[in-house]
Amino acid sequence: xxxxxxxxxxxxxxxxxxxxxxxxxxxxxxxxELIAASAENPQHFSDVIRRYQHQVDLVIVxxxxxxxxxxxxxxxxxxxxxxxxxxxxxxxxxxxxxxPNSLPEASKVIANGKLQRIDLGEVNGKYFxxxxxxxxxxxxxxxxxxxxKRRWGIFAYAFTALEVIWESRPFSAExxxxxxxxxxxxxxxAIGNGRYYGGGMAVAPDAMIDDxxxxxYSLEIRHWWEIIPLLPRMRQGRHINARNVRALQAQEIEIxxxxxxxxxxxxxxxxxxxxxxxxxxxxxxxxxxx
Length: 290
What we know:
This protein is of the alpha+beta class. The chain has 2 domains: 3-112, Probable inorganic polyphosphate/atp-NAD kinase, domain 1 (Rossmann fold, 3-Layer(aba) Sandwich); 127-281, Tumour Suppressor Smad4 (Sandwich), CATH 2.60.200. It is built from 8 helices and 18 strands. It has helices at 20-29, 45-52, 65-78, 92-96, 103-112, 136-143, 146-152, 155-165; strands spanning 4-9, 33-36, 58-63, 82-86, 115-123, 126-128, 131-135, 171-177, 180-186, 188-192, 196-197, 201-202, 214-219, 245-250, 252-257, 262-265, 268-272, 275-287. The strands form 4 sheets. It has a 6-stranded antiparallel beta sheet. Strands 14-13-10-7-16-17 form a 6-stranded antiparallel beta sheet. The longest helix has 14 residues, at 65-78.
């Protein structure tokens, strides 16, 4: 494998700014010739990747799931392989791909050069790695400030979720699959492409990031306290077997609501209903452990 790499680190991420020199040291030690480009924020990563696409052989992104999501559209466009250094709060894509949190070990994964082509989800033209959702998770995203994440780390998700759950109110939605249409009253609809999201919760027990399908679940509870017994089961994806949870699988899904509702993709609010979801098989090449 050629060693010319574009390094993009989210300096606003929980560890990005303070560990940048360590990141560069680990990668140079593995023999990489780096172009370390800076951007005001991850939303500018696409411009940076386009600028250097013909000068590098791979893109290495240091940050969390939102940072990776900011780069994904251009990775598809340029067909450059992706190396991941988990520097975020949740690091759910890294968890799905079994990439270690240790920077030296994650750098070795990229240097060893084993590539796996993974699927992407797409909603209204926006790609996502892990999960797109509407309802509770959007409210959690809106309250999960950088300050909260920096202070509490991975526990920020649990604290914020508990705060939001007791305020939750069901909304009406229509879920359309190629062969059926279902009307639901729900507090959350999640559509997963990968396995993990929200700090280590599983979309479904057998969800994989290369299974060429989307896994949907809808939390159809009437009272906030009904979600409490589901929370431990969400770690393995076993919540989908509960009586107040609807689980579906498809390659394409449409969701309609009475008024536009925001949709969270990999932890960032990026689009609104009505929403058309689909899976894009083997869309991106990622370095994974041997």
